[in-house]
Design brief:
Elements lengths: L2 E2 L8 H4 L5 E10 L5 H16 L4 E8 L6 E10 H8 L2 H6 L8 E7 L11
Parallel strand pairs: 1-5
Antiparallel strand pairs: 2-4, 2-5, 3-4
Length: 122
Amino acid sequence: MPQMRPLDPAFPIDRQLAVDARNVVLVNLFTLDKADEDTFLKAWQDDAAIMKRQPGFISTQLHRALGESPAYLNYAVWESTAAFRAAFMNPEFRAKLSAYPASVVASPHLFQKVAVPDVCVA
């Protein structure tokens, strides 16, 4: 099971899950030992397959850091925190967490788009 390290220790994922919001984005930064990359990728692929079947799932994308850094960023779009919360608590998903190598540290955080005039829309 990956270790959990919040991006914002003052407002970790368990507190974020209690906030009702629509159109949320999960950003999850993974750090791990380089030797564990293949095992990590297989575990993430299995998790993504489970999440893709959950109500409210929209999309996901995994990014790898450039160069020698074995860091990965998962970006997943959900209809709501309620949908993500249900998927995150799904027993099938929870059971698969043990497949992650011990070196994996996950830092999940939920976000919403922000409108900035003349730059981007929400």
